[in-house]
Amino acid sequence: MAPQQSPTDKRNQPRVSIKLRVDAKVLDENLKVDILAGNGYPDLDQESLSLTHPRRGRQACQTFDVSPSGLRLQAAELEALEHGTSLELDLHIPGERRVVKLLAEVMWADKGQDCPVAGLRFAALEDEGMRRLREYLEKMRGE
User: Based on the structure, what is the number of domains in the chain?
Assistant: First the structure.
């Protein structure tokens, strides 16, 4: 799949048009404040298996496109998405037994469609997860 990037695109990373399952959970404001205060988010360091159903408290969503720095998400069950909302994501890479865990921030949201869509920027991602995501995207781009 070829990267999608127009000359007016502000992204610094090429996107790959791909549908992947993402299990999302909106972070509450207190947890977001703690993370921004430098208290970290230990759940990012814990491995999680790729299960057939989302872990408790998460909603299954789907990507439209993905880059190493963000993704476009179709989020039917996440009604609270608006600019600035923080999310914990479990990104499922086909053929892998572990999810890529990350934190993301909503950069834009469109609730006017049949199913809400949002553009997310990755805010925190452990190094191993970033390596796995980059390798998968390179493979999908045919590099």
Answer: 1
